[in-house]
Design goal:
alpha/beta; six-stranded mixed beta sheet
């Protein structure tokens, strides 16, 4: 992913230079030429300033991370509209209609990004779907699972209001169980302080949680003062103090009447780190996560990254797999029923509901944000999944519908 961004950055700088030489340098108004040089130079320097900042700090504290994210947010808002405008220049040079059209597109892109910063990042959408399975015991017909993911509580702009809105959305969905599919924090366990723990403790219902890559402490810069394993240990203690059941290559059982279903959470191992953003990953042996689980029992598997789905299916598990991680890369365009996101370049399954060989996967778009404070077309999501018993040959998936939004 970082190499793609480097290519994008180099192409942007090259485009700025080409536009200046072909068009801007020929403008008769000197002030416009200077304004272009200053604006393009300052914004093009932003990505270079970020690694420079990291060189002069001893640790990536919340203040440092917020500063970096604000810089990248400003960069995206300033660069993408500019690139959109450039696309129209070769078609007509200085022709009036081309300039008007390019300006309109650039303004639209900027408005979309600013909306994602001001509104989109904090409007929680509740999505509902029904999943049918022949393997589901009849006592669990109508069983409601509420899923949330990727809270990234340390980089929320208004953590108290956003967390409170999340808890209200979960409780309003009347869950039988709540599933959290990883990335509770962004860098370190201290992001989950007492006040935020108090807010999360108000979730009404049993919560089953798994570990995401950001929960493991691998992004801590000063790993001497806080080793990653110590960070993970303390964070898991805090989650258990909330009353959550943390599933780290372990399984919990839920009983109704004379029947049971299993909920297995897969750990985020060190080996997974280098593959976390790759489309194709090696087949991982995850069978130990299902030790003792009856093979014919309906199984819900919680995996932070969706790329483990093939390995889960290969184990014959995961009647339903719940994942997160992707966030839809916090940018999504919709044209009718068609959706496109940069996430499609990196992930085979990246958002929403999928089915393969009778196994279902749901990828939640997450709550928080990483890298930038923008959610353009990818609103924070709480998912309500209702399990249904099905007869052989019955359609096993129902469409996703949005029930409501909860702004703050």
């Amino acid at each position: 992913m970082k190499y793609l961004f480097i290519l994008f950055y180099m192409a942007t700088v090259a485009a700025d230079y080409a536009v200046y030489m072909r068009y801007v340098s020929k403008l008769s108004v000197k002030t416009l030429r200077i304004a272009f040089i200053v604006f393009a130079s300052v914004t093009d320097l932003i990505p270079l300033s970020i690694p420079s900042i990291m060189l002069f700090v001893t640790d990536n504290t919340p203040t440092v991370m917020n500063t970096v994210m604000w810089l990248f947010t400003i960069y995206i808002i300033s660069v993408l509209p500019r690139i959109a405008f450039y696309v129209f220049l070769p078609a007509g040079g200085r022709r009036r209609i081309t300039l008007i059209l390019g300006t309109a597109v650039a303004v639209s892109v900027a408005s979309y990004l600013i909306y994602g910063l001001i509104i989109g990042r904090k409007n929680i959408v509740i999505k509902e779907t029904e999943i049918y399975s022949e393997n589901l015991p009849k006592p669990f017909d109508g069983f409601r699972i509420v899923q949330f993911s990727d809270l990234h509580i340390g980089t929320l702009l208004n953590p108290e209001k956003e967390t409170r809105a999340l808890v209200e959305a979960i409780n309003a969905s009347h869950p039988d169980i709540v599933v959290f599919s990883g990335d509770l924090v962004t860098i370190r366990h201290s992001e989950l302080d007492e006040r935020r723990m108090e807010l999360l403790s108000a979730i009404d219902g049993p919560v089953f949680a798994t570990v995401g890559n950001h929960d493991t402490g691998i992004y801590i810069l000063d790993s001497v003062s806080l080793p990653k394993y110590e960070n993970s240990r303390v964070l898991l203690e805090k989650e258990r103090a909330l009353g959550w059941t943390v599933l780290d290559d372990t399984t919990a059982y839920i009983r109704r009447g004379c029947d049971s279903i299993s909920v297995t959470g897969l750990s985020f191992s060190d080996e997974l780190h280098e593959f976390r953003h790759l489309t194709d990953i090696p087949d991982f042996d995850i069978s130990h996560g299902y030790d003792g689980v009856p093979e014919d029992m309906f199984n819900i598997t919680v995996s932070h990254i969706p790329q483990l789905w093939s390995s889960i299916i290969a184990c014959g598990r995961g009647d339903l797999t719940l994942a997160g991680h992707v966030h839809g890369m916090q940018a999504k365009l919709r044209i009718g029923s068609y959706e496109w996101s940069p996430a499609k370049l990196f992930y085979k399954e990246w958002s929403g509901l999928y089915e393969r060989d009778g196994h279902k996967l749901y990828i939640n778009d997450g709550i928080g944000y990483v890298g930038m404070f923008i959610r353009a077309g990818v609103r924070p999501e709480v998912t309500v999944i209702t399990l249904k018993c099905s007869e052989k040959g019955q359609n096993s998936l129902k469409g996703i519908k949005k029930r409501s939004k909860i702004p703050f």
